[in-house]
Amino acid sequence: MDVTLAAAQQKIDILTVVDTETVKAYWNKSSPSRTPSQDPQSPTGLDHNNKFMICTGSRGIISGQGTGDLSFRANVGDTVGFVGTSAYNNEIDAVIIYKIKKFSGTDVFNQFNANVYVRKEAVQPDPNSETRDGLPALHVPTNFSSFEASVRQSGTEGFGVCFALYTLADNGQRQDLYGYFWWDPTITVA
């Protein structure tokens, strides 16, 4: 007797690293002809260069792992979460993914939501460790965030990943909005 087991729901995580220096160099605010959008509902479109998407937990990578042209597979019921960061680990320039907008194909996703998870004893390097290598690590309360939705139906959706880019202010303490941007990877649901 053959037994077929239904695939369990999976959590699919997509880490998106944006080369913010390249984005800022092109969309220089000092050039009036190239000012990035300040309206989150109307982000500035970008090409697929200088964005690097790393996907784990998917039902298969169709193409583009490690690029801005990621295309991956998911099943109905899976959860897909996007996390954005700059090459500075959001310390100098910061990236926040805030919207996934469909522009073609099937409505594959349910509503996306920004979720914050608090780990009471997340690790970070100890700058005062005896050998100055950060070990043993400190356990400190830390917030983590993800922009998540469940997959609602099969099909292929062309969608835009929207992100807000913040830059470090002259005082070296505050990060201020630089602009809103987007580009378009793809998801295929079996």
Automatic annotation (TrEMBL):
<feature type="compositionally biased region" description="Polar residues">
    <location>
        <begin position="28"/>
        <end position="44"/>
    </location>
</feature>
<keyword id="KW-0240">DNA-directed RNA polymerase</keyword>
<dbReference type="GO" id="GO:0000428">
    <property type="term" value="C:DNA-directed RNA polymerase complex"/>
</dbReference>
<dbReference type="Pfam" id="PF12306">
    <property type="entry name" value="PixA"/>
</dbReference>
<dbReference type="InterPro" id="IPR038712">
    <property type="entry name" value="PixA-like_sf"/>
</dbReference>
<dbReference type="InterPro" id="IPR021087">
    <property type="entry name" value="Uncharacterised_PixA/AidA"/>
</dbReference>
<feature type="region of interest" description="Disordered">
    <location>
        <begin position="28"/>
        <end position="48"/>
    </location>
</feature>
<protein>
    <submittedName>
        <fullName>DNA-directed RNA polymerase subunit beta</fullName>
    </submittedName>
</protein>
<keyword id="KW-0804">Transcription</keyword>
